[in-house]
Amino acid sequence: MKVAPVSALTITPYQRRHLQPIRDLLFHSSYVHSHLDWLDSDQWLETGDTITHLAWQRGRLVGMIALSSPLNGSTWIRLAAVSDHVDPESVLCLLWADLVPRLRQLDVHTVGLLIVNDWIGRYASALGFHYGEEIVTLARAGYDIPNPLPNRPKIRVAELRDLSQLATLDQAAFGPPWQMSLYDLRQAYRIASSCTVATKDDLILGFQISTFFFDGAHLARLAVHPSQQGQGIGGALLGDLLERYTRRGIHLMTVNTQDSNHQSRRLYQRFGFEPNGYNLPYWFAEL
User: Fold this and answer.
1) What is the C-alpha to C-alpha distance for residues 46 and 16, in angstroms, rounded to an integer?
2) How many domains does the chain fold into?
3) CA geometry: angle at 116 spanning 115 and 118, to 5°?
């Protein structure tokens, strides 16, 4: 395979007219990293506030790195691709070197990278990323649900007007780079099969968002305000969710969580979730 020398590459920021070359690169390349959650690549690039740089060789797009809009000093590499006909490490390193000054100007301190595709993990160290921990996937199958604890909070379906409160709650419950923005929550709410909130005296204490997949469901987010953690709010939301899905004949559910999040893991274990062996390494770079 012929490898393009780094000196032959030019780096430019993304513009809307580049959308078709990006589509072609993503379609034809074997080296694609995609961690977009709720959107496809076209929708994600067209949000307008992503940070995307492109690598060109004689007018042909051969590489890209795209990051999410910074939130509280952190961001994620959400989309990356390199042509099969160039050296991936050289292209990625050149793109990254061009991105770092811009990220620093935006006061970004932490960049996350979830290794959903093995190929990009081979170059993470060369980009200055360090291994953090595993994101573990847990699964349960069955209809047994633990009895609810006393003083169970009221659970209701979330409404569009709640999303601003949910974003504030989420960013209190999680630290960077694990927080969700209001835009993220809007997109998650748009495709969710279930989004419910736990309330007391009309105050939202926690929420969950879940989606369907094949013959099961996935708990995409479970968040409880720090002042309410340890009081059964997460268990109430999870128990109510499982009851709802059981009534619909759905008995398989998965969830992802950080290996270090022992509180969440204890909760999921109580509800019958067990590791299914599908882990994703989390890497990070400090700028």
Assistant:
1) 8
2) 2
3) 70
Same domain, 174 and 236: yes
DSSP state of 168: H
d(CA 209, CA 216): 14
Could you tell me which of 30, 240, 36 has the C-alpha nearest to residue 152?
A: 240
Considering the domain architecture, whether residues 150 and 203 belong to the same structural domain is answered as yes
- Block residue for tokens 């070359």: 21
Question: CA 100 to CA 138: how far, in whole Å?
Answer: 35
Same domain membership, residue 68 and residue 46: yes
Strand, helix or coil for residue 11? strand
CB 184 within 8 A of CB 177: no
Say which CATH number the domain at 31 has.
Answer: 3.40.630.30
- Do 86 and 186 lie in a common domain? no
| Its pTM surpasses 0.85 | yes
Q: Which domain holds residue 57?
A: 6-128
Burial of 25 (0-12, 13-18, 19+ CB in 10 A): buried
Tell whether 155 is covered by a domain.
yes
21 φ, ψ (degrees, to nearest 5):
-60, -35
Question: For residues 204 and 236, what is the distance between their CA atoms, to the nearest angstrom?
Answer: 13
Claim to verify: residue 161 and residue 44 sit in the same structural domain: no
Q: Are residues 147 and 115 in the same domain?
A: no
Q: Where are the alpha helices (DSSP H) in 29-117?
A: 41-45, 88-105
Digit-by-digit pLDDT tens for the chain (287 residues) are 455 555 689 999 999 999 999 999 999 999 999 999 888 899 888 876 889 999 999 999 999 999 999 999 999 999 999 999 999 999 999 999 999 999 999 999 999 999 998 999 999 999 999 999 999 999 998 878 887 777 789 999 999 999 999 999 999 999 999 999 999 999 999 999 999 999 988 899 999 999 998 789 999 999 999 999 989 999 999 999 999 999 888 989 999 999 999 999 999 999 999 999 899 999 999 99
